[in-house]
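Researcher: Quick sanity check before group meeting.
Model: Go ahead. Protein one:
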Amino acid sequence: MVPVFLYRSVVILKTIQKILIIIILQLFCKPDPMKATMMAVAFPGLGQIYNRKYWKIPLVYAGFAGLIYSAGYNSKNFTTYMIAYQDFRDNIAETKSYQQLPWLKDIDPTTYDPVLYPQTYQASAASYYKDQLLRGIDYYKRYRDLSYIGIGAWYLFSILDANVDASLFNFDVSTNLDIALFPVQISLPGGFTGAGVNMGMTITF
């Protein structure tokens, strides 16, 4: 029986071999926008490799890493605040995870906890900290969801970038092309004229 680590190593090596073959083949081919798009859809960064824009690959993965970290961080805190709020609202003395929150750790629970200290707690303090827990839940939920949306948007952006790079691969940016802006008169209703801006392109052969 083949060891698992050996099997995984073979799979990884084959994947790397395929990527290297693709890179070598594309060194001698003009990028095709459709192929670049499909490769970017199949795996983030592959479209940039296909277009030979290797310097963009760290940017693609740095964006994903940042957004994934943000999603994990906000998701963890959302769960923490949700559990803390539930513990604060129930009538079970043993559930008091809210006391471990950094901003509640140094506050005397006798002033705000109606379950553990029904004789000494203050209703206004209990209401205030309950609202703070709800705000924490809303805050981290919002940014967790925005992080997930950001991951999807960054994925689509990497696909669009690969497509645009392939489409403009042979775009002429030499000095033979010239674009100029110049003022013009525009005819307005009623026989009046107004000022405007026109754009012209000059191609030198």
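Researcher: Fine. The other one?
Model: Protein two, sequence then structure:
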Amino acid sequence: MVEKSNPQEAVTPDEHQLVKRTRLQNLMRYLIRHLTDTEFIGAENLPPTGGILVATNHISRLDIPVLFVNPVRPDITALVADKYLKYPFFRWFTIMAGGIWLDRTKADFSAFSQALTLLQQGRALGIAPEGTRSNTATLLEGKAGTVLLAHRGRVPIIPVGITGSHTALKSLLKLRKGKIVARFGKPIHLPPFSRDNREEDLKRQTDEVMCRIAALLPEEYRGFYKDHPRLKELLEEGV
């Protein structure tokens, strides 16, 4: 049986771990630069300091490495499904990057607690609100965990729309650089829940996050949210 790494290591890396992490980041930056045509748009929307949740659509295993080498927040790490523990490369990458293992089969309070600690330390945390990778490259219905974590951590959410990562490896096999675009939206500051309609607010705010991600994506990627009224409002507003 493969065991998870020490949870505390994912939150408070020591100097030796930071050196290894920086080397990994430099390696991934080199590989992504030379093997793909990756573009970061709107990265200035990432606050340079302070705790933030970076909420992205999830269409490929390359999504996390792409966010890992963003040009503004080198401190970023991510919540990663523990199913990747059985894949040697992804296990190694996640541990080196200080990722937090998440058991998606239950309410993983340990992972939630680690993520909250990390945010309170002023770091950036990547998260996929859909809860899993989309096999169709289109948005799935979002889950409430991202909004709940933002409220508990009192941090803004930065929506990100990633395109092209699901076909980049296929392009590489054809000796072509795949085009990947990571488009960052403006920070979302969620209002407090109302006392009487908490569940309704939770659903509305989850839809808000997902529609803001959808607004950063081409129409063919919008999936579950393509006809959502809030998305139409955002597109009209030019958000």
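Researcher: One line on it for the slide.
Model: The longest helix spans residues 15-35.
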